[in-house]
Here is the input.
Amino acid sequence: MQSNYHIAVVLSGCGVYDGSEVHEASACLVHLSRENAKVSMFAPDINQMHVIDHSKGSESTNEKRNVLVESARIARGEVSPIEKLNTADFNAVVFPGGFGAAKNLSTFAVDGAKCSVNKEVDRILREFHASQLPIGLCCISPVLAAKALKGCSVTIGTDANTAQAITDMGSTHVNTEVDEVHVDPDRKIVTTGAFMHDAPIHKIFDGIGKMIGEVIKLANKQS
Here is the structure.
Protein backbone atom coordinates (compact mmCIF):
# COMPACT_ATOMS: atom_id res chain seq x y z
CA MET A 1 0.00 0.00 0.00
CA GLN A 2 1.39 3.37 -0.99
CA SER A 3 1.91 5.82 1.85
CA ASN A 4 0.08 9.14 1.90
CA TYR A 5 2.64 10.76 4.20
CA HIS A 6 6.41 11.12 4.38
CA ILE A 7 7.49 11.92 7.94
CA ALA A 8 10.97 12.91 9.10
CA VAL A 9 12.04 11.64 12.54
CA VAL A 10 15.00 13.36 14.20
CA LEU A 11 16.98 11.26 16.67
CA SER A 12 19.58 12.35 19.22
CA GLY A 13 21.45 9.14 19.99
CA CYS A 14 20.37 5.95 21.73
CA GLY A 15 19.54 5.88 25.43
CA VAL A 16 17.44 8.01 27.76
CA TYR A 17 20.30 9.69 29.64
CA ASP A 18 22.47 10.73 26.69
CA GLY A 19 20.40 10.22 23.53
CA SER A 20 16.90 9.43 22.27
CA GLU A 21 14.62 7.64 24.73
CA VAL A 22 14.34 4.23 23.06
CA HIS A 23 10.73 3.49 24.07
CA GLU A 24 9.58 6.91 22.87
CA ALA A 25 11.39 6.58 19.55
CA SER A 26 9.93 3.10 19.08
CA ALA A 27 6.43 4.33 19.99
CA CYS A 28 6.69 7.12 17.42
CA LEU A 29 7.73 4.62 14.75
CA VAL A 30 4.97 2.13 15.64
CA HIS A 31 2.24 4.76 15.55
CA LEU A 32 3.59 6.22 12.30
CA SER A 33 3.55 2.72 10.82
CA ARG A 34 -0.09 2.33 11.85
CA GLU A 35 -0.81 5.55 9.97
CA ASN A 36 0.85 3.99 6.90
CA ALA A 37 3.47 6.75 6.91
CA LYS A 38 6.78 6.50 5.14
CA VAL A 39 9.50 7.42 7.63
CA SER A 40 13.02 8.76 7.10
CA MET A 41 15.30 9.19 10.10
CA PHE A 42 18.02 11.78 10.67
CA ALA A 43 20.56 12.69 13.34
CA PRO A 44 23.49 15.09 13.74
CA ASP A 45 26.88 13.65 12.81
CA ILE A 46 28.53 15.00 15.97
CA ASN A 47 29.89 13.65 19.24
CA GLN A 48 27.47 13.34 22.12
CA MET A 49 27.80 15.88 24.91
CA HIS A 50 28.96 12.95 27.06
CA VAL A 51 28.34 9.22 27.49
CA ILE A 52 26.30 7.82 30.36
CA ASP A 53 26.70 4.27 31.66
CA HIS A 54 23.00 3.44 31.84
CA SER A 55 23.60 0.54 34.26
CA LYS A 56 25.04 2.96 36.80
CA GLY A 57 23.57 6.33 35.83
CA SER A 58 27.03 7.87 35.86
CA GLU A 59 29.23 9.42 33.19
CA SER A 60 31.78 7.29 31.33
CA THR A 61 34.50 9.91 31.38
CA ASN A 62 36.93 8.19 28.98
CA GLU A 63 34.37 7.33 26.30
CA LYS A 64 33.08 9.21 23.26
CA ARG A 65 30.15 8.29 21.05
CA ASN A 66 28.75 9.78 17.84
CA VAL A 67 25.09 10.84 17.77
CA LEU A 68 24.51 9.58 14.22
CA VAL A 69 26.20 6.24 14.88
CA GLU A 70 24.23 5.70 18.09
CA SER A 71 20.97 6.74 16.40
CA ALA A 72 21.57 4.03 13.80
CA ARG A 73 20.91 1.48 16.57
CA ILE A 74 17.28 2.66 16.73
CA ALA A 75 16.99 3.24 12.99
CA ARG A 76 18.36 -0.25 12.20
CA GLY A 77 21.06 1.47 10.16
CA GLU A 78 18.69 3.60 8.08
CA VAL A 79 19.63 7.07 9.33
CA SER A 80 21.05 10.06 7.45
CA PRO A 81 23.01 13.13 8.56
CA ILE A 82 20.62 15.86 9.59
CA GLU A 83 22.00 18.23 6.94
CA LYS A 84 20.31 16.03 4.33
CA LEU A 85 16.82 16.66 5.71
CA ASN A 86 15.06 18.66 2.98
CA THR A 87 11.84 20.10 4.35
CA ALA A 88 10.20 20.08 0.92
CA ASP A 89 10.35 16.26 0.89
CA PHE A 90 8.19 15.80 3.98
CA ASN A 91 4.68 16.28 5.34
CA ALA A 92 5.77 16.60 9.00
CA VAL A 93 8.69 16.18 11.40
CA VAL A 94 8.75 14.32 14.73
CA PHE A 95 11.24 14.62 17.61
CA PRO A 96 11.24 11.83 20.21
CA GLY A 97 12.43 12.78 23.68
CA GLY A 98 15.28 11.61 25.88
CA PHE A 99 18.06 13.75 27.34
CA GLY A 100 19.77 13.75 23.94
CA ALA A 101 17.30 16.46 22.90
CA ALA A 102 18.59 18.59 25.78
CA LYS A 103 22.26 17.59 25.41
CA ASN A 104 22.94 16.86 21.72
CA LEU A 105 20.19 18.74 19.86
CA SER A 106 20.51 21.73 22.20
CA THR A 107 22.36 22.89 25.31
CA PHE A 108 19.20 22.98 27.45
CA ALA A 109 20.54 20.43 29.96
CA VAL A 110 23.40 22.80 30.82
CA ASP A 111 22.08 26.27 30.01
CA GLY A 112 18.34 26.02 30.62
CA ALA A 113 16.41 28.99 29.22
CA LYS A 114 19.65 30.51 27.92
CA CYS A 115 20.34 27.46 25.77
CA SER A 116 21.18 27.33 22.10
CA VAL A 117 19.66 24.89 19.61
CA ASN A 118 21.77 22.89 17.16
CA LYS A 119 21.86 24.99 13.97
CA GLU A 120 20.39 22.23 11.79
CA VAL A 121 17.62 21.51 14.30
CA ASP A 122 16.88 25.23 14.43
CA ARG A 123 16.79 25.35 10.61
CA ILE A 124 14.42 22.39 10.43
CA LEU A 125 12.02 23.77 13.01
CA ARG A 126 11.94 27.17 11.33
CA GLU A 127 11.50 25.72 7.85
CA PHE A 128 8.65 23.41 8.84
CA HIS A 129 6.99 26.29 10.64
CA ALA A 130 7.43 28.63 7.67
CA SER A 131 5.98 25.94 5.38
CA GLN A 132 3.01 25.45 7.76
CA LEU A 133 3.92 21.78 8.18
CA PRO A 134 3.22 20.01 11.49
CA ILE A 135 5.89 19.42 14.14
CA GLY A 136 5.51 16.68 16.76
CA LEU A 137 7.61 16.64 19.94
CA CYS A 138 7.45 14.60 23.14
CA CYS A 139 9.02 14.43 26.59
CA ILE A 140 11.77 17.09 26.91
CA SER A 141 12.05 17.81 23.17
CA PRO A 142 9.33 20.53 23.19
CA VAL A 143 11.97 22.85 24.68
CA LEU A 144 13.52 22.88 21.18
CA ALA A 145 10.40 24.50 19.73
CA ALA A 146 10.04 26.79 22.74
CA LYS A 147 13.49 28.20 22.00
CA ALA A 148 13.51 28.16 18.19
CA LEU A 149 9.91 29.28 17.69
CA LYS A 150 9.38 31.79 20.48
CA GLY A 151 5.77 32.48 21.26
CA CYS A 152 4.60 28.93 20.65
CA SER A 153 2.68 26.88 23.22
CA VAL A 154 3.84 23.39 24.22
CA THR A 155 3.60 20.84 27.01
CA ILE A 156 6.19 18.77 28.84
CA GLY A 157 3.55 17.49 31.26
CA THR A 158 3.56 19.17 34.66
CA ASP A 159 7.25 19.64 35.56
CA ALA A 160 7.38 23.10 37.16
CA ASN A 161 11.06 23.85 36.57
CA THR A 162 10.98 23.00 32.86
CA ALA A 163 7.68 24.82 32.47
CA GLN A 164 9.28 27.93 33.97
CA ALA A 165 12.22 27.64 31.57
CA ILE A 166 9.79 27.47 28.66
CA THR A 167 8.15 30.63 29.92
CA ASP A 168 11.54 32.29 30.31
CA MET A 169 12.31 31.44 26.67
CA GLY A 170 9.28 33.45 25.58
CA SER A 171 6.87 30.58 24.97
CA THR A 172 3.87 29.19 26.84
CA HIS A 173 3.63 25.94 28.79
CA VAL A 174 0.32 24.09 29.18
CA ASN A 175 -0.03 21.41 31.88
CA THR A 176 -1.25 18.03 30.60
CA GLU A 177 -1.66 14.47 31.82
CA VAL A 178 0.42 11.63 30.37
CA ASP A 179 -2.29 10.51 27.94
CA GLU A 180 -3.05 14.02 26.73
CA VAL A 181 -1.56 16.18 23.99
CA HIS A 182 -1.40 19.90 23.45
CA VAL A 183 -1.87 21.38 19.99
CA ASP A 184 -0.72 24.86 19.05
CA PRO A 185 -3.01 25.29 16.04
CA ASP A 186 -1.40 28.47 14.74
CA ARG A 187 2.08 26.93 14.59
CA LYS A 188 0.93 23.34 14.02
CA ILE A 189 3.02 22.08 16.95
CA VAL A 190 1.82 18.93 18.74
CA THR A 191 3.38 17.96 22.08
CA THR A 192 2.92 15.36 24.82
CA GLY A 193 4.73 14.80 28.12
CA ALA A 194 5.67 11.10 27.72
CA PHE A 195 8.41 10.12 30.21
CA MET A 196 8.36 13.56 31.80
CA HIS A 197 5.53 11.84 33.71
CA ASP A 198 6.11 9.04 36.20
CA ALA A 199 3.55 6.81 34.55
CA PRO A 200 3.09 3.26 33.25
CA ILE A 201 4.75 2.73 29.89
CA HIS A 202 1.47 1.82 28.17
CA LYS A 203 0.05 5.25 29.04
CA ILE A 204 3.16 6.91 27.66
CA PHE A 205 2.76 4.81 24.50
CA ASP A 206 -0.89 5.90 24.22
CA GLY A 207 -0.01 9.59 24.71
CA ILE A 208 2.58 9.40 21.95
CA GLY A 209 -0.04 7.72 19.77
CA LYS A 210 -2.34 10.70 20.27
CA MET A 211 0.54 13.04 19.37
CA ILE A 212 1.20 11.16 16.15
CA GLY A 213 -2.52 11.08 15.38
CA GLU A 214 -2.78 14.87 15.68
CA VAL A 215 0.36 15.33 13.55
CA ILE A 216 -1.21 13.19 10.81
CA LYS A 217 -4.48 15.15 11.03
CA LEU A 218 -2.60 18.38 10.52
CA ALA A 219 -0.57 16.87 7.69
CA ASN A 220 -3.78 15.73 6.05
CA LYS A 221 -5.12 19.29 6.12
CA GLN A 222 -2.02 20.41 4.23
CA SER A 223 -2.21 17.72 1.55
